[in-house]
């Protein structure tokens, strides 16, 4: 699995959100490399935990901005955040129950999970915020 590389296509046009996204990609890449390099199961679980915690913080950051600027799609966006966190926590439980093994399929799931949300839902938020901030 290749690293996720930050580029203009992933930018939502709001610096503080883009900075959060870069950090999320960095943690994802650390996890990806750790799987390839055969790091200990405990290290993989800790890295996955860091990715989830950073994502939870990032989502609350976005939701604060949505409230401040009265984003009209806030309910739908927050629902997607809740669903994404739930799916990540379910993945985490699977990893914990399967000898703490993070497989390529888990990395692929997380890659899709991160990039799809940034490219679609966050892209719409970024367009809105760029106009009102």
TrEMBL record:
Residue ranges occupied by any Hemerythrin-like domain in the UniProt entry: 13-125
Gene Ontology molecular function: metal ion binding; oxygen carrier activity
Keywords: Iron, Metal-binding, Oxygen transport, Transport
Gene3D superfamilies the UniProt entry points to: Hemerythrin-like
Keyword Metal-binding in record: yes
Pfam families: Hemerythrin
Transmembrane annotation, as ranges: none
Similarity field: Belongs to the hemerythrin family.
Xref: PANTHER family: BACTERIOHEMERYTHRIN
Entry protein name: Hemerythrin-like domain-containing protein
Lineage of source species: Bacteria, Pseudomonadati, Pseudomonadota, Betaproteobacteria, Nitrosomonadales
């Amino acid at each position: 699995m290749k690293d996720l590389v930050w580029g203009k296509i992933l930018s939502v046009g709001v610096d503080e959100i883009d900075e959060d996204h870069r950090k999320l990609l960095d943690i994802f890449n650390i996890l990806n490399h750790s799987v390839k390099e055969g790091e200990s199961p405990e290290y993989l679980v800790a890295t996955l935990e860091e990715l989830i915690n950073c994502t939870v913080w990032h989502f609350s950051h976005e939701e604060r901005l949505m409230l401040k600027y009265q984003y009209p799609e806030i309910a739908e966006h927050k629902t997607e955040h809740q669903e994404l966190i739930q799916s990540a926590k379910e993945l985490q439980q699977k990893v914990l129950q399967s000898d703490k093994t993070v497989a390529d399929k888990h990395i692929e799931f997380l890659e899709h999970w991160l990039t799809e949300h940034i490219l679609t839902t966050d892209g719409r938020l970024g367009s809105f915020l760029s106009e009102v901030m």
